[in-house]
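Lab notebook, bench 4. We co-purified these components, and the gel suggests they stay together. Before we commit to crystallization screens, I want a quick structural picture of the whole thing.
Request: model the full complex, all chains together.
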Amino acid sequence: MSAASNSTSVAMRGPSRGSTMATTLIAAVLLLIAVAAPFVLYPVFLMKVLCFALFACAFNLLIGFAGLLSFGHAAFFGGAAYVTAHVVKEWGWAPEFGLLAATVVAAGLGLVFGLIAIRRQGIYFAMITLALSQMVFFLALQLPFTHGEDGIQGVPRGTLFGLFDLSQPLTMYYTVLAIFVAGFALIWRTVHSPFGQVLKAIRENEPRAVSLGYRTDRYKLVAFVLSASLAGLAGGTKALVFQLASLTDVTWQMSGEVVLMTLLGGMGTLFGPVVGAGLVVTLESYLASTSLPVPVVIGCIFVVCVLVFRRGIVGELLARLPRRGH
Amino acid sequence: MFSLLGVPPQVLFGQLLLGLINGSFYALLSLGLAVIFGMLNVINFAHGALYMVGAFVAWLLLTYAGVGYWGALVVAPVVVGLLGIVLEKTMLSRLYKLDHLYGLLLTFGLALILEGAFRHQYGVSGQPYPIPAALQGGQNLGFMFLPNYRAWVVVASLTVCFGTWFAIERTKLGAYLRAATENPTLVQAFGINVPVMVSLTYGFGVALAGLAGVLAAPIYQVSPLMGTNLIIIVFAVVVIGGMGSILGAIITGLGLGLLEGLTKVFYPEASNIVVFVVMAIVLLIKPAGLFGRER
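Here is the predicted assembly.
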């Protein structure tokens, strides 16, 4: 999204030494907090946050760093959840293979979506991904293996690598944390690689990137597939955590929710989607115990974010920090 | 009884009629989207929600004010249009200088609010809305039974669609509108109040959605979720037709409605996704859409 360029200077400061060290420090502190968290907070809630955080980070890789607004990421998230649930429950696969299957299927789906959607840009890209994901929703509603409205219930968590019993909440939590950290590290690496720089160039000015000789469609496609795979990994993990894969995760509302998490936290910032996911999940579990209608509240946050808070929380924080490095 | 391709004609024509009606709604809604997009460069995600609001205004008028169908046919689009103008003035107009995607995100939020609020108030179950007395009953055409109301819906929406096409392509006001789409600054320099024109365009576009809502009320039940899934299909219709042409939006809407009806006859399992499949195929062959120009 070229409008993200409002905050470009904020979003990514480039790999200057000072900011890299600061980010590493922040990451280390956050990791320590994450390791200690299950002793203070309810582990299932934390795992939900981590799954959505990975999902939002994967989504942010597209919108924040390649400028592509996908309104269909629920297809990868929810579709992959079905895959994990099915292979683990019906075929008795080990959880690690369940997650691998989820990632591979999401990557394949991402490749198909990407090949179709990158033929158009901007608003059309959003509408096409939305329409394609709605197709996945109808497939999930009708195909026999997804069990329609019931979803796939009672998915066994199993034993990871034959060693770790995932039915233990803490073991499951640290597994999810490890998956999240691995996914986040991959995104970090991607963003700071030459490949990531080209993506940013495409986001800022695609015709120019083309004129410099980059095949922008290929870069966009690779970014799309990578984002879809990570969203799939997040979805598969969520299916293991909640032992359930359901239609909720493939709806367009879910696609909208991940947009909100990223927007609220800060598009194009590395930590923004994590913060956004934490806030939205917390808010939803709070609202569930009140009589307030959740979509109305979510919709209001959306409107406020778009109108007055486009940088998001982390984006605003970064904008207020004194400049360092360069 | 004779049959066509192994399908009894009642079934075939019944589904085709249903397809034609769905197609009329697709046409009305994608027309509104195309008009709005042409002028504002905003994809109005709230279009489905405003269609639902139109239907609810008709239902509320009947239930609480005793205003019948014909009154609602006038009042509901006006109410929805005014609501649209307020939304445009207070929110959308702040986003024109930014990336167009923010308009999509804003209207997405608005759609969530509208649908959530109605759902909170009236629940998910539909409210029945009676067919007006003058349009009850139907005609026996020999090969099928044609309910009067459904014939009316098709005729009414086609009239509105082509009226809009005529107004935009053949009148002076339409010429201003098209000129402002091409170059708003220049048109403003000629002394035409472009911001007001933009508000009115948005109001008109969503009023079309409101009108579609009233037309739909007696056919489908009036429910908070009636616009949700429809709008995504209409997006696909818009992508297939391309947004450059008003006539293209109308033809694509009707055509896809009919195609959906045919799919229901011959391969019902695929009827929900056929529009999306067509969209994918069109994108692979002609990325700008059937009637579109790449801009």
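The CA atoms of residues 120 and 236 of chain A lie 29 Å apart. Worth comparing against the SEC data before the next meeting. The two ends of chain A are 25 Å apart (CA to CA).
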